[in-house]
Amino acid sequence: MTPSPTASTVPTATYRLQIQPEFPFSAAERAVPHLAGLGVSHLHLSPVLEAVPGSTHGYDVTDHRTVRAELGGEEGLRALAATARTHGLGLVVDLVPNHMAAVPRHNHALRAVLRDGPDSPYARWFDIDWAAGDGRMLLPVLPGRLPEVRERMRVADGMLHLDGQEFPLRAGTEELPLAELLDAQWYRLAWWRLARTELNYRRFFTISDLIGVRVEDPEVFAATHGKIVELVRDGVIEGLRIDHPDGLTDPEGYLERLREATDGRCWTVVEKILTGTEPLPPSWPVAGTTGYDALRYVDGVFVDPAGADELLDLYREFVGRAGDRGGYWEATARRAAYKVVTHELAAETAALTRIAGRICAADPDLRDHAPWALLTAIRELLVRVPVYRTYRTGGENVLTPDAARGAKAAFAVPEEASAVDTVRDLALGRLGEGPEHQAFQARFAQTSSALRAKSVEDTAFYRYTPLLSANEVGGDPGRPAVTPEEFHAYCLRLARDWPATGTVLTTHDTKRSADVRAGISVLSQCPRVWAGLLEEAAGVPAPDPHLAWTAWQTAFGFGTPDAARLGPAVLKSVREAGLHTSWTEPDPGYERAVQEFVAAGPGRIPLRTASEAAFALEPHIRTHVLGAALVQLTMPGVPELYQGTEREYRALVDPDNRRPFAVGPDDEKTAVVRAALALRRRHPDLFGEAGGYAPLTAAGPAAGHCLAFARSDEVVTAVTRLPLRLAEAGGWQDTELVLPAGRWFDLLDGVREFTGGPDSEVKLAELFAERPVALLSRRAGREGSGGLG
Q1: pTM of the predicted model as reported, rounded to 2 decimal places
Q2: pLDDT per residue over 135-148, tens digit each?
Q3: Distance (Å, rounded) from C-alpha 58 to C-alpha 60?
Q4: Bridge partners of 162?
């Protein structure tokens, strides 16, 4: 019988640390007392296995057999675990099963494949289409065309060397003339630009430096998970965060094998991005997601829908055609999808076309489909997948007949459109179960997830920017607001189906930290104030109005002028948008103008204090910051704090948000965090599987401005939402909240007491007299309340 994770291994709260050479295991060990004092139960570490030297993130794994030496090695990790354990903390580790660094110098498995070719025992590790490369693997690593760099190549010690790169040589080729030597290898060195169209191995998204790993192969799984499994069985690791499961051939099969390998001892969550109301597959053997779905609901409930609509009108008027053709979200996302599937993912769609072509060539009923028709059908269906990918079951709900009809409309010759039916049936596994059929079905799903990530997260989110706080992974910029009713319905689903799922507000991947997003979200309550700020900022000319809107809104959320941090974030945004410049085809003149604009405007002018109207928003931003923090810490699920977010934390997109951790001074937010975490750690039963969730509804003229809920009828969270609109409407007035029966104690000051019950309404003006949030407990009175004030 496979044991289940014990109650002690299911975290009450986790704290994410970015482990890197500048902040190794020993530094984390020194921080343990502080972190334990916050009230979390587990430390969550970024990837710990061997990675490319100097890597600041660790997702470029090079060797699964060893713990990364730059971080302190296995001895350092075990020492950290021991110290954490003495302070009552366990460890959760980020696991990267989908990909490795495609750097032969450091990746022993890839090096063996390049040396020995398809007969290497490591060839099964990677999805390489040897036939597509004339029997060779394309390595798009050259800084220029081969003739431009050939004279810098040299052979020494059985390796080919170029500008610090090393490539193994096929046995018996060391003495050949260079031109013959290059042609005799199992790989072809090529200009990096050829990766877009000629690549013949599966990669992570569009990053050719990260090669996909075939963990669906039992031998590959065992080889790449042996060390992690050993650390789990030794009690060093109690939880796992699974990075990018959508990239795997069969996520559910992988998770089942992982559960078996770890004897079910781990609390495991997956970095699964859910779209809209898409559910996590209920058959997956995990505790839930890493929490981007929760981020969307928490952020959205603090957005004013009417103001968001007004902001959209202002955005369209301000940006005009300088943005993405008028500012309509669905159209922007669709155009971005076509761009990515046609250009950045050309190699992936070509691979799918080759597989489909081989299947059709072997089937008399499918033989007449032209390659161009198959390619067109693949592209048209991919851009119509409304979520990240399909799975073992339920694909018909994703690749619908409507999607097929839309794809067929792209064909000028109706008779050729039948290729859509063939491709759809292949993607749904309807045309056979042979190796090629299985390969197509898996690669279609994997390409779909890459397309969604690159077109939505990394393109459309930077092209459509009316309210930047909505542009986070899992978010819906076309509908940024979430009603209290929708929020409560979501929490009820979590409490019922995924009570131990993860919840987050800030991560190493968020484009803006929660506190930055809070500042931006407040603008949905005052669109005209925002319009006035833009008028005041017009004295600093921008290269284009879309950039002006985006950069100034980013600066407003960030709060403090800082060109050194804003500049790189804004530059990244224009490259990702790809409207005027890009990563692969940069426009130096435009990018220079962007940097000069940021230095003269958003990076210099303190927009939040530039006018009385802007300065007056600070209390409302504070209300949002505290409310979002308390809601996330007490709603269903296991909350995660990202490093530094127990206090005010303003950070922009990576690498800004991945700086080494440092303990900072406590503030008002810290007090709220400590109170909630202390309660969770003392009484995990109130928040776990049996904790339940009960929405509480206020009554009175300002009822819609209170978001409140009870956990186990023992804890009540109540927060203020849309405070600026509340003030404009005259405040709380006679609005009341009925608490469950009993005596309630405010954990945020340890003094105030309230009485619950149907005949004991609590005035919200009194409840929120000291601060815009309240955390109430009935047990505090029995134990002796000790507030934080």
Answers
A1: 0.95
A2: 999 999 999 999 99
A3: 5
A4: 165
